[in-house]
Amino acid sequence: MKSFSQATNLSAHTIRYYEKIGLLKNIERNSSEHRIFSKHDLVWMEFITRLKDTGMPLKQILIYADLRDQGEHTATQRMELLKEHAHALEERLAQEAQHLSKLKEKIAYYDDMINSNNRLT
Q1: Which residues form a coiled coil (predicted)?
Q2: Cα(2)–Cα(11) distance, integer angstroms
């Protein structure tokens, strides 16, 4: 658990929670019942983290995970979920770019004001 936690930058608590709610399934265990995470589990957890980091709600990630578990015949549905998320992310990025532009305008305003005052003194 510790090495998987370090590799994913997630707490052991979060990893256990993801397992409990069904995002991590069929985790192998050794004879001492300690979890044995595979490279496949790491790649999957990295994808889950990317979806969360880009603003996909956990409820949607669970839907995606459920479809994934059902097999290849759900590829179209998974692709549509990802397309919808990508579209929402693009809209959010455009809005953030607009916010950044306005902040830079305000910074330039203050820069001009400060430089004008400095020239007067």
Answers
A1: 79-106
A2: 9
Encoded amino acid at 93, one letter: L
For residue 39, pLDDT over 90 is answered with yes
Within 8 A by CB and 6+ apart from 12, the residues are 1, 2, 5
Per residue in 53-100, pLDDT (tens digit) is: 999 999 999 999 999 999 999 999 999 999 999 999 999 999 999 999
DSSP string, 19-88: HHHTSS-S-EE-TT--EE--HHHHHHHHHHHHHHHTT--HHHHHHHHHHHHH-GGGHHHHHHHHHHHHHH
Would you say residue 8 has pLDDT above 90? Answer: yes
Domain ranges across the chain: 1-53
**Cα torsion 37, 40, 42, 47: sign:** negative
